[in-house]
Amino acid sequence: MIINYFGKQYFKISQGEVVIAYNPISKDSKHKDKASRFGANIVLISVNHKDYNGIDTVTYPLRRSSSEASGETKPFVISGPGEYEVNGISIIGIGSDTEINKKNYINTIYLVNIDDIKICFLGALSKELSIENRGMIGNPDIIFVPVGGNFLSPQDAYKLAASLESSIIIPMDYEESGLKTFLKEGGGNKIEPIDKLTIRKKDLEEKKGEIVVLKS
Predict the structure, then answer these.
(1) Residue 120 has pLDDT above 80, yes or no
(2) Which residue would you say has higher pLDDT here, 20 or 102?
(3) pLDDT band at 1, cuts 50/70/90?
(4) Is residue 212 a contact partner of residue 197, using CB atoms and an 8 Å limit?
(5) How far apart are CA 51 and CA 54, in angstroms?
(6) 101 Cβ neighbours under 8 A, 6+ residues apart
(7) Are 8 and 27 contacting, i.e. CB atoms less than 8 angstroms apart?
(8) In the chain, what are the domains?
């Protein structure tokens, strides 16, 4: 599995021939300069906000072999709670309330199982998880957590991520000051950002609460 980061909560997750886009940045967002374009099979939208709902950004042709026809690819879009299975990938969406710039939204937490790697995207989470949602999330292998700003404070973000006992913790949607505090909470303030994360299931067995910072 290869994970790339494009700022805010915008990620590209590639596993074999399947490409998942998470919270792509819309062309209407003030952060549109980070709206990298690529073709995706699956798009996960956690909240209907222009910083996170840029479906057009990832409705582009996927790479194809010379024997395949070209043309625009329409990704399978998931934008709310429910249970889904797409391309053999299990996806569960869990609803939660959030607030962005003093406006209320529904935030969907996504649990994704790809080749037995369990991923949790907390999305635009701004409040402590309910006991029910915490139970549904369990202990994912990789967790994506928002840090600061409209969402969890850096201290609360780390505390929550650590309590879920993930192998890898990936901060997102942060400012540099918030990230610094988050890393300090995790005892890893000297962590160097990397261009991308390449990970296999067996690699996760050796890790416990390791923070990975991806360059955007």
Answers:
(1) yes
(2) 20
(3) very high
(4) yes
(5) 7
(6) 150
(7) no
(8) 2-62+72-211 (3.60.15.10)
